[in-house]
Every structure is written in C-alpha cells, then in structure tokens.
Amino acid sequence: MMWSVMILSGAGLSAESGLKTFRDSDGLWEEYDVMEVCSVEGFAKDPKKVGDFYDARRAQLERVEPNFAHKKIAELKEKYPREISVVTQNVDDLLERAGCKEVIHLHGTLTDLRCEVCGNIWKVGYESQEGKSCQKCGSKKIRHNVVMFGEPAPMYGYLDDVFSSIELFIVIGSSGNVLPLKSMAKYKEKSVLNNLHPEPDLDRSFQTVIHKKASEGILEIEKMVKDFLCE
Ligand code: APR
Ligand code: ZN
Q: Do residues 88 and 199 both lie within one domain?
C-alpha cells in the first residue's frame, strides 16, 4: 500500500464538538493533574481515580457529535481510500461516527477496555468500566485502552512506516507537544498545519499554515488534497 497523503489530527479537531483540548486555556490539563490521571505512576498510585477520569470522558463523549471537519475527513477518506491515511492522537470515536474508515488511533481508544491479564481488547462504548471483567478470561484486572505517559504507544511504528511514504503531510488541531510534528514537517516538501492558535515555533516548520477553526480550515485542506491527488 503506497499512501501519498496523511491527515494527522489532535484534540483541536474535536474542540468544536465540545471536547476539551489538553493544553489550551480551559483545557483538560487545567482541570486535572495530567500525571495523576494519564501516567503509569498515577495509575499505579490511584487506579480508581484514573478509572473515574476515563469514565467521565466516556460519558461526555456519548453526549457530543462529530463536527463538520470530522465529516469532511470521512468524505475525503471515502473518495481516496488508498491514497489518504487518517491518523489521530485522539481517543474519541468522532471520526468513526462521521463515517471514516480505517482510523489509526496512536494513543488508544476511549470506547474500548483492555485486560491486563490476557491483553484482550473489547468495546465498552460509553459505559463505566466499574465492575466490568474481561470478556475473554473473566479477569477483573481491566483498564482503559488509552496510552499513558510512561508506556509505549504501539502504533508509532505504523506511523513511521506510513509517514516515510507520504508526500503531503497535513496536521489538524495539534500543538505538537507529544509527537515531533516540527521535525516531521521538515521532512516533507508539502506540509499543512491547521490550528486555531498561532504557535510560531511549530508554524514555521510547515509549508502552509491555516489559523482557523478546523471546521473552516478543512475546506482549504479539502481543496489542497483534491488538487494534489488529481495532479
Ligand atoms: N480548530 C483547530 N485547532 C484547534 C481548535 C479548533 N477549533 N481548538 C484548538 N485547536 C488547536 C490549538 O491551537 C492547539 O494547537 O488544537 C491544539 C491542541 O493542542 P493540545 O491540547 O496539546 O492537543 P494535542 O496536540 O492533541 O495533544 C497531544 O498530548 O496530552 C497528550 O495524549 C494526549 O493526544 C494528546 C497529546
Ligand atoms: Zn483477559
């Protein structure tokens, strides 16, 4: 499979659906201590607090809807299924609910649980994980299927493979605080960043920068992708 376009998204893609980003003002990291609820150490110290954190995010996810940007990405993926790789740092299911196929989640998925004994992963949807047990081995040692700081992100290998073959690199709604977006953009002649807030140090690495909400920026991105693929 030779991909030619990657659309990589972060929390900013889901902001207009009502899900908080992490590092914007009023973001999740202003409400929670990230190391308490999203790190291996925090999980070991207080698994119940971490479980409650993900339960709350799952319950909120059920109440929100995909936005226009999710829908346009799904349309582009449907029109160019072999050319466009859709990769996200987001753990929400809004791209899938917008109809997008083959979404690669680099940091896991909020709507799944994982067994710490046998590794089984299964769909929990928007329910609490309280009292649940593994559907395969029956173990009660289950956890959220979201990658925490301090543990490996299994899909990063896939990201590297796809990234090496693409020519057009598009980022929507990410500050680049976790993935090395600056250096990734420098490897590609054609790179587009669509963030709401200017971040000069990140912006200057990209060939094209769109400082708009994702639901507006996606129209410019759609035109760039179609022009590039129809060249
Ligand atoms: N439209 C487009 N971009 C937006 C919007 C919007 N409506 N609202 C905010 N943004 C942009 C901000 O400008 C910022 O650059 O989204 C970005 C959000 O950055 P972060 O909150 O850092 O989110 P993200 O980059 O996805 O974080 C990466 O960090 O905490 C970990 O695992 C977590 O996957 C997450 C990773
Ligand atoms: Zn199990």
A: yes
3-state secondary structure of 87: strand
Q: Tell me the best of 9, 28, 36, 178 to mutate to test the pocket of ligand 1, counting ligand atoms within 8 Å of each CB and taking the most.
A: 178
The CATH number assigned to the domain holding 217 equals: 3.40.50.1220
Residues with CB under 5 A from ligand 2 (ion): 115, 117-118, 120, 134, 136-137, 139
Instruction: pLDDT tens for the chain, 231 residues: list them.
Output: 678 999 999 999 999 999 999 988 888 888 888 889 999 999 999 999 999 999 999 999 999 999 999 999 999 999 999 999 999 999 999 999 999 999 999 999 999 999 999 999 999 999 999 999 999 999 999 999 999 999 999 999 999 999 999 999 999 999 999 999 999 999 999 999 999 999 999 999 999 999 999 999 999 999 999 999 986
Distance CA 41, CA 169 (A): 34
CATH number at residue 48: 3.30.1600.10
Residue 158 and residue 169 in one domain: yes
Closest residue by CA, ligand 1 atom 23:
11
Same domain, 186 and 219: yes
Domain that holds residue 27: 20-63+109-146
Give the residue, out of 8, 13, 19, 22, with the most ligand 1 atoms within 8 A of its beta carbon, to mutate for a pocket test. 22
Q: Are the beta carbons of 105 and 90 closer than 8 angstroms?
A: yes
